[in-house]
Design a protein that fits this description.
Blueprint lengths: L10 H6 L4 E7 L3 H16 L6 E8 L3 H11 L3 E3 L2 H6 L5 E4 L7 H9 L3 E4 L7 H14 L3 E3 L7 H12 L5 E9 L17 H4 L3 H16 L3 E9 L4 E3 L6 E3 L5 E8 L4 E7 L8 E8 L2 E6 L5 E6 L4 H4 L3 E4 L21 H16 L11 H20 L3 E2 L3
Parallel strand pairs: 1-2, 1-4, 2-3, 4-5, 5-6, 7-12
Antiparallel strand pairs: 7-13, 8-11, 8-17, 9-10, 11-12, 13-14, 14-15, 15-16
Length: 398
């Protein structure tokens, strides 16, 4: 792998020719269960030689017919309808929690206490208080723990991280981020689902989309010191899919905010699920004294770069760099330059990193987000909600 990717092959495996297996137990078989499983299946032959071979032991979900079909489709050895039974399986060494937000804390804590390493989808929890209990439990158990902030593992984002850390941008002045989707608008016909209920989701656009750009702000720029925010819920009631009536939407549909960083930078964060025409539009821009960077998730293999001092008659402003060279982060295991990778590959990178941390006893941070990072993102999510509710600036206390 290239310098800065954050993972290497297992030293012992190199010496003996043997690569260890790690048994995986997956909670959830839908969107994230599918994305994570796809990554586990690619790791052995694409991230070669891998730090470990993921062994798909068990998958868990409430609907027995659906989870049994998922086990057959994805290639898990068995399935469960109760996550407690899956955690009790001694073959499971890595618990991957892709369940709804309200099912993050209890299963993850139980898995950690049972000695399982824990990988959990974002946001880590519904509230900072709940996230802190997960972090403390994993820390006390001495297991590896990681939050699935997969955008840290986009090659262009990792390159941005390396440029900032090298001092190439100099002092950072601004961080701007938007995350825009449209899938809750009326023309999409989305019914009342768990993501729209505060009891199961914790928050709406803030936790679902905002948590990603909050984590990128922490990863790329540093700690957020204060926030000021507005939120809106545009459709307050939605019909249930089964026709049994309607439910009250109790989370935010959108938020906008200003943020201040401890290092003196300032910025803006915005997320909505009501942006017509936007499918998965996550855009960040960073302005420093020596240059600027701009990234758009829908153009995942590109990074726009501007360097102060270049002749404007030659550069015409920002350069559009194609991030696909073999010396770019993560690329040595993929294709020749210009042959693109996509969103799914971020999970391959982050789960390879987590396996490497497990078998080589490495720290998940700074490249990956551990449960402390998940907690810190949750603190900011809570502060955004508090600011919107109280109409005042909220100072962040981690």
């Amino acid at each position: 792998m290239t310098e800065g990717t954050g993972f290497t092959t297992m030293a012992g495996a190199k010496a003996t020719g043997e690569i260890p297996e790690i048994g995986v137990g997956m909670l959830g078989y839908a969107f994230m269960g599918k994305a994570h499983t796809n990554a586990f299946k690619k790791i052995p032959y694409m991230m070669y030689p891998p730090p470990a071979i993921p062994r798909l032991v068990s998958i868990c979900g409430r609907n027995e017919e659906a989870v049994a079909e998922a086990a057959r489709r994805y290639g898990y050895l068995t399935y469960h309808t109760d996550w407690r039974d899956m955690i009790a399986d001694e073959r499971v060494q890595l618990f991957d929690n892709g369940g709804p937000n309200h099912l993050h804390a209890a299963p993850a804590i139980a898995a950690a206490q049972a000695g399982k390493h824990v990988f959990c989808e974002k946001p880590l929890a519904r509230t900072a208080e709940e996230a802190k209990t997960m972090w403390e439990a994993a820390k006390a158990a001495g297991v590896k723990h990681m939050v699935a902030f997969n955008y840290r593992f986009v090659p262009a984002i990792r390159l941005a991280y390396e440029l900032i850390r090298s001092g190439a941008l100099g002092r950072i002045f601004h961080f701007r981020a938007v995350y825009l989707q449209e899938w809750l608008m009326a023309h999409q016909g989305t019914p009342m689902i768990w993501r729209l209920d505060k009891k199961t989701a914790g928050s709406g656009a803030i936790g679902d989309l905002g948590a990603h750009i909050i984590d990128l702000a922490h990863f790329l720029i540093g700690d957020i010191a204060g926030v000021s925010a507005f939120t809106r819920t545009f459709i307050e009631e939605r019909d249930f899919a089964d026709g049994s009536g309607a439910g009250q939407v109790t989370v935010d549909d959108a938020f906008v905010s200003t943020v201040a960083f401890k290092n003196g930078a300032i910025g803006t964060l915005e997320a909505t699920r009501f942006a017509a025409g936007r499918k998965n539009h996550e855009v960040i821009e960073i302005n420093g004294e020596k240059g600027s960077l701009r990234f758009n998730l829908e153009r995942i293999n590109e990074l726009d770069v501007f360097w102060v001092g270049e002749d404007p008659r030659e550069t015409q402003g920002f350069h559009n760099a194609l991030i696909s060279e073999p010396f770019h982060p993560f690329w040595s295991n993929w294709w020749p330059q210009g042959h693109m990778i996509g969103w799914e590959h971020t999970f391959v990178h982050e789960l390879t990193h987590f396996l490497d941390c497990i078998v080589n006893d490495k720290a998940v941070t700074p490249y990956g987000a551990d449960f402390e990072d998940g907690y810190r993102a949750a603190v900011v999510c809570d502060a955004l909600l508090e600011s919107a509710d109280t109409r005042r600036v909220v100072d962040i206390a981690y």
